[in-house]
Write a structure and sequence with these properties.
five-stranded parallel sheet; alpha/beta; Enolase-like, domain 1; FAD/NAD(P)-binding domain; 3 domains
Length: 474
């Protein structure tokens, strides 16, 4: 048995590495175990998010947006360019450099905070003992007073469209195409499908997205998704709803897809296929039989509102537990659990976790949708305001979208804020702060917002709740 720790974290993604750093800051002897291996074959901290998720996808989104603006958007500004080309290898190389910068940054943070990094696959055993198998097959055991499970999630694989890393890929594969595919098929019109579909569409691919659900982005507010769907259609994204993929056969000429929709069986041929139908908790092989930790029917670790498993000293956070599979949600849970272990008051409010989709226009929301408020029988009022009436948005030539605020009809407390438009990933923070402080629509309406800024759309939407928006007819 190796040395004992106060806190042993399993997983070095946004939930795990943040938990480890916070625990160390609080004076606890901490180690973090992770088995992720980077493209260079070496251990890489940061989990899915930093290596093959949030960070690299945003790097490609930015590169593809720059190219698309050069070839399609700059003419309105009087800027012209001829025969513009994209070097995919350089673009992917830039993405890899950014990834290495951030994963290396976590290594430095671990050293600065005296967190011990342990590479290998971890299995939790009884008595808060963790067995770690390294890349050479050697097994070591570590003990801890507290163990935090932060193993994250992995892509769901379809049995009839298995990942081969070349033709049929997951999110990681779609980040590393060597060239722009002529025809890209995407299964799933969720966050990953829309973002990566947008990347390759901007670079010239013909993108077809098949979504099994009849409604587009059912988790978001209907008024927002209606605008988003319209804009994506203008961009040439072919999104087919109510479609169920039944077969994917790789041949010499491409991948032959068979799917069914309201009209019956259909076929489609593509050159690359991205399967993005969701993610599942990465808990396979994690638990020995006698740990006392329970998994639910979706393979997630069961926890209470404080992320405690019910077993002394055992906690779980991030994608492998209930709640949205979002990096920032996992990070906040990591901080909260570290503080609880140290005897402090850690807490995460899952009702105010913001969601963001980094398409163009961006989509962001926090709190309840109008449909949810209706279903729960809550009296409410709404106010909305379009970016087309915002001076900054017009100057940027990015006028698509709106801000919508839902407030309680009697108390005026904000129940949800929904946005589609330019940089709403940044604007949503104001809504989160307001809701955390139990703010009302009138509170937002009375705050002075700088002019000209995109944030004025939030201000006007708050005014519109009381039918007193200044720059549109109420």
């Amino acid at each position: 048995m190796s040395e004992k720790y106060d806190v042993l974290v399993i997983g070095a993604g946004p939930a795990g590495y943040v938990a480890a750093i916070r625990a160390a800051q609080l004076g606890l002897k901490t180690a973090c175990i992770d088995d992720f291996v980077g493209k260079d074959g070496k251990p890489a901290l940061g989990g899915t998010c930093l290596n093959v998720g949030c960070i690299p996808s945003k790097a490609l989104l930015d590169s593809s947006r720059q190219f698309h603006n050069l070839t399609h958007g700059f003419e309105a500004h009087g800027i012209s360019a001829r025969d513009a080309k994209i070097d995919v290898g350089t673009m992917v190389g830039r993405k890899d450099k950014i990834v290495k910068q951030f994963t290396g940054g976590i290594t430095q943070l671990f050293k600065a905070n005296k967190v011990t990094a342990i590479p290998g696959f971890a299995t939790l055993k009884a008595g808060r003992v963790v067995s770690v198998k390294d890349s050479e097959g050697k097994t070591s055991e570590y003990a801890a007073t507290n163990v935090i499970i932060a193993t994250g999630s992995v892509p769901i694989e379809l049995p009839f469209a298995k990942f081969d890393g070349k033709h049929i890929v997951d999110n990681a594969g779609a980040l590393d195409f060597e060239s722009v595919p002529k025809r890209l098929g995407v299964i799933g019109a969720g966050v990953i499908g829309l973002e990566l579909g947008s990347v390759w569409k901007r670079l010239g691919a013909e993108v077809t997205i098949l979504e099994a659900l009849p409604d587009f982005l059912a988790a978001a507010d209907a008024d927002i998704t209606k605008i988003a769907a319209r804009e994506f259609k203008k961009q040439g994204l072919d999104i087919r709803l109510g479609t169920k993929l039944t077969k994917a056969e790789v041949g010499k000429k491409g991948i032959a897809l068979t799917y069914s929709d309201a009209k019956g069986e259909q076929t489609l041929e593509v050159d690359k296929l991205l399967v993005a139908v969701g993610r599942r908790a990465a808990t396979k092989g994690l638990l020995a039989d006698d740990t006392g930790v329970k998994l639910d029917d979706r393979g997630r670790v069961e926890v209470d509102e404080h992320n405690w498993t019910g077993v002394e000293g055992l906690w779980a956070i991030g994608d492998c537990v209930r709640g949205p599979m979002l990096a920032h949600k996992g990070s906040e849970e990591g901080i909260a659990v570290a503080e609880l272990i140290a005897g402090k008051a850690g807490h995460v409010n899952l009702d105010t976790v913001p969601w963001v989709i980094y398409t163009e226009p961006e989509i962001a929301w926090v709190g309840k949708t109008e449909a949810q408020v209706k279903e729960e029988g809550i009296p409410y009022r709404t106010g909305s305001f379009p970016f087309s009436a915002i001076g900054r948005a017009v100057a940027m030539n990015e006028t698509a979208g709106q801000v919508k605020i839902i407030a309680h009809a009697e108390t005026d407390r904000i129940l949800g804020v929904h946005m589609v438009g330019p940089l709403v990933s940044e604007l949503i923070a104001e809504a989160v702060v307001t809701m955390e402080f139990k703010g009302s629509a009138e509170d937002l309406a009375r705050i002075c917002h700088a002019h000209p800024t995109l944030s004025e759309a939030v201000h006007e939407a708050a005014l519109a709740v009381d039918k007193r928006a200044i720059h549109k007819a109420n």
